[in-house]
Amino acid sequence: MLSVMPFTALGWVLTVLLGARRRRLAGCLLAWSQPGGALAWLLAHHPFGPMAAVTIGRCVLAASRPALQATWAHEAEHIRQFERFGLLFPLLYAADSLRCLLRGQSIYRDNRFEVAARLAESKTAHQNLAGRRKPSSSV
Ligand SMILES: [Zn+2]
Description:
Blueprint: H1 5-17, E1 21-25, E2 28-32, H2 38-44, E3 53-56, E4 59-62, H3 65-85, H4 89-102, H5 112-133
Parallel strand pairs: 2-4
Antiparallel strand pairs: 1-2, 3-4
The structure holds zinc ion (ZN).
């Protein structure tokens, strides 16, 4: 298995340099920007368009704490992708963006890794809704 450690380390360094708040959860590093912080500014000016969060290895960097919570299922899929493909993941992601560009598609929205992350996000939202609909046994 290829390691995601170098990317996670890079993500951690960025959180320090950008003054982000951090928390560890299940072997992941979650970071979010202070209001008006450098991380929020960088995500708002991402080359693919404004982003709520990005994942680097097992590190998720979000524009705010609510953004982190809202995007967790999506970013968790990117963590799984990093774990699956390791050091090759950024290259595979870029290659798929190139495939999209050559087909006249969006290099972000149509990228197969983004499509998979949105699907995971959708499944989680659906499961959460289904969980809320369960009748309470105490009522
Ligand atoms: Zn994504």
